[in-house]
Amino acid sequence: MATAGGSQGREQGCEQGREQGCEQGREQGREQGREQGREQGCEHYRRGCRLRVGERGAAVPWQGCPPIRAPIQAVSFRSQAPCCGKLYPCRLCHDGAEQHQLDRFRVSEVQCSRCRLLQKAQQRCEGCDSLFGEYYCDICHLFDRDKKQYHCQECGICRTCYNEMLKEGYRCPLCMHSALDMTRYWRQLDDEVAQTPMPTEYQNMMVEILCNDCSARSTVQFHLLGMKCQSCESYNTAQDGRCRLSLEEQ
């Protein structure tokens, strides 16, 4: 009986040990998952970053949204914008939860999600050399690991799908300014226009145009290949009035 009791006790002890081990393993797994989620970002951006809006040096809790990859938190000073002093994965997460908006242009510091070092806004961590994002805009302070982005100087914000845009044209889809230096192409277009006379009925046709690059208005001769701005010599123009005959033909 003593032997049977001892065996039963050992079995109970083993079972309890297994249960404790499983529970400990599950808890470690959950903690690893939470840590990985913090380093991966949120549903809006694949980055390891979180935004913090508040006084410098204040310890504030994580305010998260579903995990997605970059290791930082952007910081804005209370004197620069209304602040809540909380951590968020991105500006959109912040604005969706608070009654005020985060001004991305005033972000001045970031905090690494891995080593928690508070530092100036930059692409790599000063402490652990973690890459905060494959793309970083030091104007918008946008960090991203997924999207191929560029910064449109005219719009003042970062736009996505730069390569896709180039397949369709050369202009920013928002402000319509030329996203590339088109000077060389404009000079080629000068030659093509000169070598392509318009049909007789259009040769003296004039039209008002608006330049998308410099916003100047001009009255120029109508041409199917393009109409050049008289101010900046760009062909990134749009017709701003009806075609009409020149005074000589009226």
From TrEMBL:
Alphabetized UniProt keyword annotations: Metal-binding, Nucleus, Ubl conjugation pathway, Zinc, Zinc-finger
Residue ranges of the region described as Disordered: 1-35
Gene Ontology molecular-function annotations: ubiquitin protein ligase activity; zinc ion binding
Biological process according to GO: protein ubiquitination; ubiquitin-dependent protein catabolic process
Pfam families to which the protein is assigned, alphabetical: zf-CHY, zinc_ribbon_6
CHY-type domain residues: 35-130
Comp. bias (Basic and acidic residues): 12-35
SUPFAM superfamilies recorded: CHY zinc finger-like, Zinc hairpin stack
Main localization category: nucleus
Span of domain CTCHY-type: 132-196
Pathway(s): Protein modification; protein ubiquitination
Keyword Lyase found: no
Annotated localization: Nucleus
Cellular component annotations (GO), alphabetically ordered: nucleus
Domain of life: Eukaryota
Keyword Transmembrane: no
Protein name: RING finger and CHY zinc finger domain-containing protein 1
